[in-house]
Specification:
By secondary structure, this protein is an alpha+beta fold. It has 15 helices and 20 strands. A five-stranded antiparallel sheet has the order 1-2-3-5-4, with helices on one face. The protein has a three-stranded antiparallel sheet with strand order 6-8-9. The longest helix has 19 residues. About 40% of the residues are buried.
């Protein structure tokens, strides 16, 4: 394939009727990516197939403005020797349908919840939050304060208009379009049938997609599609992940395709959804032969799935953001309640033995870390252990400490379902660390308070045992949690996340009351205490007292990675990529 001369072909990843995907390595720059190539030659750039290809690229490139960690990232499309292609991030993993097969159709509950958290967050971005990254110049100017030029919040009617203009409806959600990578993160892809804003999509496109995942209204050519259509399809995905199969099975072996389609259509429109418990019980007892299943998932998860699968769109979650909030609220309750929401774990009695006393059941008491009862070993066991994944509450005090290998003690804090370091890391054991600061920001007396600044590689090496460098998904979970919990909002505003995380001293002054630099309004409502240590680059310090920068364990390419920034003059947490020579602060998150 001469048109791919600039790459070394590593292997074919998948082939469909529309395009083929390869894993490639760039010969000159050395990065590894996936590349999607249209199967048909493009002799006319106005042809329908090329226009469809470019439309998908345009939507994905626009979605990429926000660098969402659970949506596939693509790069500039190309037309080389009549072949249309586009680079995208290579995701080392499996789609859910193959992963489900590999796991013999029984997935641990914690995996189902992770899927619900991450993909509902991706849908929240598509359905609502994307407008923040797509506004044109005139719309962006609406945020400028006429007095000092700082950014101000838009009013609710303006936000709703922008949401409706820029939202993206995926329109083809199914288990083959979600990848689970080796780190257990879920990525949404294939936006080929997506709908933008209030655009009307031809019925010939609307009926495309896998029939097992199509919302009832998608079978009606006259009905309009909304974010609730995606919610239904994702509900089918969650149902399949928890129950081991889709609620309404399409018979691909039926020689009469119209009859098979009519049957599954009728089920979606008016059929009763089969019991999740009965299907999950069956899949468990098939996978773990001879063992007895006991319910291992919370009631709220089943209620969420059934709400997604409501026949009437108005009875479902309104969009991905509402679903994500529901899931996160219940995850938080699982962490903070002293009791579990569903069946308690009982240690089973052993088979008859000469011992006079039976094995006693454990006492479920709060621990300093969340406790998960392990799943049963797939190998034969002497005792019938039922699988259950529950989280026991932590101690009431959400503050704690951790000690690294140097013996240095750091403060920690629990925010939602995550435990973070409160102090910036300051170990001197690792290379490529910026020298100590000379000029301290106002309010700070020692360099030890601000910690040290690390290059990306040093940050990855420095992780203490039991802790890790956070990735984009971790920060996104934190951001969503804060947005949905008013007790953390500065000045009663859900967009003031940066202010909620920023320390209460040391920041350059700013007149916008929603930014960390406006100190008369309360900073640090979370206790996170992000410190404005700035960054180090080209043998010099920058933005000291203005910015807190933290590395993420998320690569941009072979020469750069992402970092989070909290600025004195911005109300939101910012995400950007930087080459490895930069040195930033480091906050680890508990494994």
């Amino acid at each position: 394939m001469a048109f791919l001369d600039e790459y070394t072909m590593l292997r074919e990843l998948g082939r469909g009727g529309f395009a083929t995907v390869y894993k490639v390595k760039h010969n000159q720059l050395g990065y590894v990516r996936a590349i999607r190539v249209l199967n048909e030659l493009v002799t006319d750039t106005q042809c329908e197939i090329y226009q469809k290809f470019m439309e998908e690229c345009r939507i994905l490139l626009r979605l990429g403005n926000g660098n969402h960690p659970h949506i596939v990232h693509i790069y500039q499309p190309k037309l080389l020797q009549n072949k249309a292609l586009v680079e995208m991030d290579f995701i080392d993993g499996q789609d859910l349908s193959h992963y489900l097969d590999e796991q013999k159709h029984f997935i641990p509950t914690k995996e189902v919840i992770n899927l619900a958290i991450q993909i509902s967050d991706a849908l929240a971005y598509c359905h609502e939050d994307i407008y923040e990254y797509c506004m044109d110049r005139a719309e962006d100017d609406l945020q400028d304060d006429p007095e000092d030029g700082s950014k101000v919040l838009l009013d609710a009617p303006t936000i709703q208009r922008l949401v409706e203009k820029y939202r993206v409806i995926h329109n083809d959600l199914h288990s083959g379009n979600i990848i689970r990578n080796r780190r257990g993160e879920y990525i949404l892809l294939d936006f080929g049938l997506s709908i933008e804003g209030n655009n009307v999509v031809r019925s010939s496109r609307r009926v495309n997609g896998k029939p097992e995942f199509k919302a009832p209204e998608k079978w009606d050519d006259t009905a309009s599609l909304t974010p609730q259509s995606d919610i239904y399809s994702f509900g089918v995905v969650l149902y399949e992940y928890l129950a081991g199969r889709v609620p309404f099975v399409y018979n691909y072996q039926d020689s009469d395709m119209l009859r098979a389609e009519a049957q599954v259509r009728q089920s979606h429109v008016s059929g009763e959804v089969p019991s999740i418990f009965n299907l999950r019980k069956h899949q468990y007892e098939v996978k773990y032969s001879g063992k007895t299943y006991q319910k291992d998932y919370p009631d709220w998860l089943e209620k969420a799935i059934m709400k997604c699968l409501s026949k009437n769109p108005n009875d479902r979650f309104a969009n991905g953001k509402e679903l994500h909030k529901y899931v996160m609220d219940h995850c938080r309750e699982m962490e903070t309640k002293p009791k579990v929401e569903f069946q308690q774990v009982q240690v089973p009695q052993p088979k008859p033995q000469p011992q006079p006393e039976p094995v006693q059941a454990p006492i479920l008491t709060p621990k300093s870390d969340p406790v998960q009862v392990p799943e049963p070993d797939p190998e034969p066991m002497d005792m019938e252990l039922s699988p259950i994944s529950i989280i026991i509450s932590e101690e009431e005090n959400m503050y704690g400490t951790m000690t690294d290998e140097d013996g240095t003690v750091y403060r920690t804090i629990r925010i939602g379902i995550q435990t973070w370091m409160v102090d910036n890391y300051r170990s001197v054991k690792f290379p490529s660390v910026a020298p100590p600061l000379v000029n301290m920001p106002q309010g700070f007396s020692s360099f030890e308070t601000l910690g040290r600044l690390y290059t990306y590689e040093a940050a990855r090496l420095a992780r203490p045992s039991g802790w890790r460098l956070p990735n984009m998904a971790d920060w996104n979970i934190l951001n969503r949690f804060l947005q949905t919990h008013p007790e953390y909002w500065a000045n009663e505003n859900s967009n003031c996340i940066a202010k909620a995380l920023a320390s209460s001293e040391g920041w350059r002054r700013n007149n916008n009351p929603f930014t960390p630099g406006n100190l008369p309004y309360t900073n640090n409502t979370t206790g996170f205490e992000a410190l404005p240590a700035g960054y180090y680059h080209h043998q010099d310090f920058f933005e000291l007292g203005e910015t807190a920068c933290f590395w993420l364990d998320s690569l941009r390419d072979t020469e750069s990675a992402y970092a989070i920034s909290i600025r004195y003059d911005h109300s939101r947490v910012l995400l950007n990529d930087y080459d490895f020579s930069h040195a930033f602060s480091v906050r680890f998150i508990k494994d």
